[in-house]
Amino acid sequence: MNQIQLPAGFRDSILDECRKKNELKQTLNAVFESYGYEEIQTPVLEFYQTYSKAFSNLNDQDMYKFFDQEQDILTLRIDMTVPIARAVTTRFKDEMGPFRLRYCANVYKVRPSLSGKRSEVMDCGVELIGLDHHADLEVLACALEALNALNLPNFMLEIGTVQFFECACQIADLNETGRQTLADLIDRKSLVELKEYLDTLPMTNQIRTFFLNLPLLGGEKDVLEKALSLSFAPELESVVLQMKQLDAQLTELGYGGLYQFDFGKIPHLDYYTGIIFEGFVEGVGNSVLSGGRYDKLLQVFGNDLPACGFSFKLDTLAETISIPTKKANIQVLYPQAQIVEALKIAQKLRQKGNVELRLANVETIYIKEEE
Amino acid sequence: MSLSMALTKGRLEKKTVEMLDACGYGTEALKDKGRALVFKDSKKDLEYFLVKANDCITYVEHGVADVGVVGKDTLLEGGKYYYELLDLEIGKCRFIVASLPENDLFNKVGHIKIGTKYPNVARNYFLSKGMDVEIIKIDGSVELSPLLGLCDGIVDIMETGATLKENGLIVLDTVCPISARLIVNKASFKLKRKEVMDLIHDLEQEVLRNAAALE
After folding, report:
1. Is position A1 within any domain?
2. ipTM value of the model?
3. What pLDDT digit, counting tens, does each position of B139-186 carry?
4. Residue B83 sits at the chain A interface (C-beta within 8 Å)
5. In total, how many domains does chain B have?
6. Closest-CA residue in chain B for A186?
7. Do B153 and B204 belong to one domain?
8. Are A353 and A330 in contact (CB under 8 A)?
9. Angle subtended by helix axes A176-187 and A162-171, to nearest 10
């Protein structure tokens, strides 16, 4: 069979696309390194069990699965956070950290065919493991610095917290089905169905108003006041006050105008326990950065450490930036008889620039330099 | 910042344009189309393009269109990566389950086959009823399939019910009501929040006026 096609959702990356990704990688790595993050590499395969342990709402169909020699189920990693959580608990057993780890690696998710979405994407990010929510500010500052370093025309870091929603569900005494349905509707900002669904739940008007307002509870500073006024319990107020503090600190650090809040942000992954955030860039339909605090994940693997991290989607970012094409700027044309001489000359010229050798119909070696 | 809006071609398009007109938008270009595919609003910083219902979701999900107007029927069948912020309350109809009167679908013992253009909607409906049925995808004239014995029943859109009646089918249940929705790309909502909210606000007022006019 003359097989020339790639599996759905996969693509080759060539020329400028590669260079863009590499350039982005270098820029981001430089920022991460300056924050003290060290590189970690993990295998592309993990046990399926590792993921099913980490997520209670794992979407099986999203994962590429295989069998190994023992007939155990393997999967292509769907993220880097879980492999790193696993690695930290085994490699740094009984150490308290903090661990600052960075990575740049391909991750895999099965995407619907013909949807134009990628099944293999490169994630470039950091995990700060062993520090509690007091370190949120450091992680957010690092994310903002990284976004800044990319020289994007217009970007926005959107900050939310899972606690606002989770706390409200607990106080409202919702069961798991109710919580999940609300989470889905609020996350999709599906205002029509949200209203219909809330009408079927037994709750006070105050709580109903709270949930009804969550999807649009986003924007600049003034949203914090609105969130405070909607809070129907002291626990909720204290969540908002924490966000207010973050806001004051970020402004003091000079990041004002680069971030927003969204209290209606509900993560798809159920391992987040505190702040969650996403970065958006003009001209890109999806977030280019996502992250958050996950204080219970490492516990699953046997080392009870809090953690927070984020990652950039390099492929999506690469589509937004343009860089000048780079080609060999010196050409050495030579006749077959003088190939050795041509290689010698080329070797010297390489100190000046990139050299391309070309066999040509010429009498003697000829050097062409471009500006 | 300028907004781009994907409108679903056909029946919904006319009703959406009527709504936009009533809100004071300049949709002249949409009425005198010629060969153009992209239309500029003459009063607001807005650009329209016309697409098929399924493509409306695709364009919005990819962020090529910031917002889109599309029927709930299509949304129920398609992707989920968008915000659904407003019910325009136009293009109203409903999903129904129908069969021949002699096919007692919900009490049948044995294998049940359902013909539909909307496999996801049908699957979810029967799952919610605790029934395991076989779904057969049919692309047109779904009413035909039970008549010819391909299926025991159908899940389809019903507006007036005339077609079903003509073919001797009876409605057994309503799956859900359908109407046109305004969907918004997630990133657009973050980066163009004000523009999007203004548009929603304008259309929302019109929805309320239409509802008041009906009463």
Report:
1. no
2. 0.83
3. 988 999 999 999 999 999 998 899 899 999 999 999 999 999 999 999
4. yes
5. 2
6. B83
7. no
8. yes
9. 140
